């Protein structure tokens, strides 16, 4: 069965790293048909909208999407696309690889972030002049979905430690509900977990990241803590992510369009190639995914490396090295 993958490079280095990852996907066994679509700043300049209806439809109809990054229009592109795929879970694996000068070489974490609500509910208003409010939405349904996903992810990926980030001591109603639901889910599965106040966890992640495995987070906490952890392993050029829905999913590097290096052909394609590996896993090609990951790890360990990792290689040289290891 051929799988349809929507390819949305977006802007800036998205237009360099996404084609590199597509070249890698084309060398593995998984039967994939690519459908290209446009979104982002350039699209807005040309068509008046950052996310054309045609792109929404292409993403909705595909089995999965590989997205690069959008520039100033990022919020107008990626937030709607995450909802087009019905994504309730954002997964961000943060692993240290040999050869990358990671500050914390033992790091092997995966953030499982609630992707639909919390303080990103979008419910903001001006109460009176000089007073604005934001509604923090937490539902039992979304809490259950992220808890189920997080514990399942830990089992599938061999993580023994599950930590649940919260601030229920202050946000008693909302994070109180979140923790109650997590407890129910864990009890039903017979799963063990720890809870951690999200501010203290930020410190602990820096002090001893190796003590953590899967970290299940409300939306904002997951956004912040996963970026913090990125700093432990050599930066944004290495971090993939998955936006998972029940029937569709979108995969993207955590980084943006990197305007200062865009067009130079030196962006690190590793984050996007690793995102493509997550995509392969999602559509059922675990062994291809594993081969791609190992090829990237091999190239990171032995070179060639792009300038963000202290090397002098181009995006194309890294892509070719990964493809060589696969063929
Ligand atoms: P950024 O991730 O684009 O860049 C941050 C730093 O990391 C820069 O020094 C950049 O050169 C470097 N970097 C990032 N990816 C790299 C790679 N693959 N290889 C080598 N170096 C890399 O974040 P920034 O500068 O905050 O945002 C730039 C633009 O990207 C903004 O317009 C922002 O809106 C957009 N953005 C879009 C996102 C998305 O579409 N999901 C996510 C984050 C930012
Ligand atoms: Mg962020």
From TrEMBL:
Belongs to the isocitrate and isopropylmalate dehydrogenases family. SUPFAM superfamilies: Isocitrate/Isopropylmalate dehydrogenase-like. The keyword Oxidoreductase applies. One of its GO terms (molecular function) is oxidoreductase activity. Transmembrane segments: none annotated. Keywords: Oxidoreductase. It comes from the Archaea. It holds the Pfam family Iso_dh. It comes from Halovenus salina. Residues 4-322 form the Isopropylmalate dehydrogenase-like domain. This is Isocitrate/isopropylmalate family dehydrogenase.
């Amino acid at each position: 069965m051929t799988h349809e993958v929507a390819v949305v490079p977006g802007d800036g280095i998205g237009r360099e790293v996404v084609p590199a990852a597509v070249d890698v996907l084309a060398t593995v066994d998984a039967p994939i048909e690519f459908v290209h679509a446009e979104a982002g700043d350039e699209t807005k300049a040309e068509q008046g909208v950052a996310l054309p209806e045609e792109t929404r439809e292409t993403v909705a109809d595909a089995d999965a999407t590989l997205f690069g990054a959008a520039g100033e229009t990022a919020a107008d592109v990626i937030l709607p696309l995450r909802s087009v795929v019905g994504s309730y879970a954002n997964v961000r694996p943060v692993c240290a690889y040999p050869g990358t000068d990671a500050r914390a070489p033992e790091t092997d974490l995966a953030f499982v972030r609630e992707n639909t609500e919390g303080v990103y509910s979008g419910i903001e208003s001006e109460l009176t002049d000089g007073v604005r409010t934001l509604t923090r939405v937490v539902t039992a349904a979304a809490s259950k979905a992220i808890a189920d996903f997080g514990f399942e992810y830990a089992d599938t990926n061999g993580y023994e430690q599950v930590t649940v980030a919260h601030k229920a001591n202050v946000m008693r109603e909302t994070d109180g509900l979140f923790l109650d639901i997590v407890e129910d889910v864990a009890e039903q599965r017979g799963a063990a977990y720890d809870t951690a106040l999200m501010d203290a966890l930020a410190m602990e992640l820096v002090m001893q990241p190796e003590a953590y495995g899967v970290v299940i987070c409300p939306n904002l906490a997951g956004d912040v803590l996963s970026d913090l952890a990125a700093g432990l392993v050599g930066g944004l050029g290495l971090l993939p992510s998955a936006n998972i829905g029940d029937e569709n999913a979108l995969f993207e590097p955590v980084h943006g369009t990197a305007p200062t290096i865009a067009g130079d052909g030196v962006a690190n394609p590793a984050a996007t190639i690793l995102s493509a590996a997550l995509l392969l896993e999602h559509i059922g090609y675990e062994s291809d995914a594993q081969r791609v990951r190992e090829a990237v790890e091999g190239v990171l360990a032995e070179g060639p490396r792009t300038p963000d990792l202290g090397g002098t290689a181009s995006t194309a040289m890294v892509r070719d090295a990964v493809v060589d290891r696969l063929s």
